[in-house]
Amino acid sequence: MSDGTTGREDGTTEHENGTTEREHVRVAVIGSGFGGLGAAVRLRREGITDFVVLERADSVGGTWRDNSYPGCACDVPSHLYSFSFAPNPDWPRTFSGQEHIRAYLEYVADVFRLRPHLRFNSEVKMMTWDAEQLRWEIETSGGFLTADVVVSATGPLSDPKVPDIPGIDTFPGKVFHSARWDHDYDLRGKRVAMIGTGASAIQIVPSIQPEAARLTLFQRTPPWVMPRVDRAISGAERWLHRQLPFTAKMRRGLLWGIREVQVHAFTKRPDELGMVEKLARRNIARAIKDPALRAKLTPDYRIGCKRILLSSAYYPALAQPNVDVVASGLSEVRGSTLVAADGSEAEVDAIVFGTGFHVTDMPIADRVVGADGRTLAESWKEGMKSLRGATAVNFPNWMTIIGPNTGLGTSSMILMIESQLNYMVDYMRQLDVLGGRVALAPRPGAVDAWNDRVQERMKRTVWNTGGCTSWYLDANGRNTTIWPGTTAEFRSNTRRVDLGEYEVLRAPRPRTENPAEKLEAGA
Ligand code: NAP
Prior knowledge:
20% strand, 23 strands, alpha/beta
């Protein structure tokens, strides 16, 4: 460099006089999925350009980059599953496939000029709060940096969960998780075991069933599955949305409104969902003629307790002669023999785990060390807990996008992400107004009050009363993932940062130089 400094690969800058200094940014965003890219757009719109987006992979997209399994698609309509500030009049189908959503996120990165902020291959290894300097020290696989504020947008569905099955090491064939699909492995003519019956598995099963010689589905709990009415969006509709953007807005508004009125049944009157169960039972009966198979596939808990799945192809695929449904979880592997908890066995060449993600025990929590020297995972040992889904006690100037109790059972997560981005923007404004080297630390009382309210409301919801276990509940049985209200309500709860809920931390003023000390030191 011509200014007498040298930029080094680990993020430090070496000066001519031999001293080194770390790169410092105002905001470090972690993750470049919907949450991270959304944060980047909103920061730029606020006029904040001194930020980086740290991404462990080599491209944007988050969960929509990592999940490329056959049949991967979104079960929320495209016009609702996109940013309000980046409408896409050209969605080709009512429900988008993974490749369309991934392309959309690449487009967002380009159009909003986010590329200069992106740091690929930069996995966060550790983040530690520096209480003296009031900033985060961040170690990544690409180097070190410090940041005033961290926006953690790692997402709840980013780290695959594979159950610890005894004997799995003895399996001689191919094994992979739905979110780490091995596209080089040819399933044609193979005996394949699909483990799990969640949203991923029900999309994979109909996509691989025609290829596999035999498909054995290990179903621990049957899901409720409703038909998915997917169709191509016509050229005329797209033209209309391009020419008259308010028509796309109206479409989005309608999709949002329909889901918003459904919330009441999920959160306050789960019995009303009995009517939906009738439709779902009819959906099973339409495709499954064998009464024994129908019995296996019919859930015994209230619909909505687990995520309601949408597919018109799942049951027809299960009715095919090359498919076996084992109504029991995988409990052991003995060489190429898979053994279910009920003792039934299957010989297979490949195992596909559709067993979900580390949601309530997200690995990033082990890598964040707060003001009291404990990790976020240690602080959340009794369950995830934050203020308005964003900030946590002892973690000043650190916030999550899709934090605790911000998930949805019924609508588009992009709506919740945008609410959290509103909160993030107001947080940055508050820091500006306070001025100087300053940080905000949520007060324990405010965090408890928020969580008590959320948990009180949770008691009546279908997720807690519906008679199932799901990934919405943590190891202690607490629902720390779902928001028990409408998206509109969450929006109004996150519009502004209430400074009364925070302690304002200020860095000690640098000591004024004492000439006497200087003399003593022999200067
Ligand atoms: P998931 O919903 O957590 O499902 C995991 C499945 O694995 C469950 O059926 C579980 O059974 C089963 N399982 C775990 N251990 C097992 C064992 N030993 N034997 C047999 N089965 C076992 O995971 P996911 O399907 O990947 O979906 C996760 C989330 O991703 C979804 O809820 C959704 O939010 C999102 N997703 C969305 C879409 C979309 O269209 N937007 C598509 C895919 C995924 P139990 O039910 O008994 O626990």
